Amino acid sequence: MIKENYSKILENVKNACIRSGRSPEEVTLIAVSKTKPVPMLEEAYSAGARDFGENKVQEIRDKFPVLPDDIKWHMIGHLQTNKVKYIVDKVCLIHSVDSYHLAEEISRQAEKKGVNADILIEVNMAEEESKFGLYKDEVTDLVREVAKLPHINIKGLMTIAPYVTNPEDNRKYFRAIRDLSIDIAKENIDNVSMSVLSMGMTGDYEVAIEEGATFVRVGTGIFGERNYTV
Length: 230
Ligand SMILES: *Cc1c(COP(=O)(O)O)cnc(C)c1O
Description:
By secondary structure, the chain is an alpha/beta fold. Helix content is about 40%, strand content about 20%. It has an eight-stranded parallel beta sheet with strand order 7-6-5-4-3-2-1-8. The two termini are about 20 Å apart. Pyridoxal-5'-phosphate binds near residues 32, 160, 202, 218 and 221. Pyridoxal-5'-phosphate binds near residues 34, 55, 160 and 221.
């Protein structure tokens, strides 16, 4: 089933690209495997998935050593400063940076491990109280400060849109974060690229692609519902 789901979503991703005049190479599907056991990730891997998203440090630490080396791990969940050291050299991109304090620790730990960390700034576009991320008015100032840190590269922005039944309801947020990223790019801040937009999940990834997503993060659509009680 995972194989069929993965292929179907990849197909939808391609079609959304074509529909919106984009090249399918511009968009990467991240298989969000949080809470799912290793055999399910192996199944997605054999279907062709190479980018996996996790939201817990411990799960990355558990899965990383037992899965193939050519997997790119994405940290998409809220990251506590004291856990940065466990993953900074394991993940290809941290999507969820929302404070200078966290960015500082990422830079410090990256230096210790002899790497440069690629990060995204998480933006709470709908200003939902239950969500992490900066409000849009705060983003440019944080980008300027974080850009000065030595072992960090800012690659773009990430958002988690509200849970909606009609994906069209999120189009305005996707469009607004895209506009924000264009505005920031125009500032030509040293060491800052705005080439990445991580947005869109199972319910709304096609709309997100139409509005410029370069990473879509799909969990349920590939692996099925998550069961948090086991
Ligand atoms: C869980 C999660 C997803 C995937 O959500 P689905 O609705 O299952 O596709 C995407 N992004 C983040 C940050 C998540 O935590």
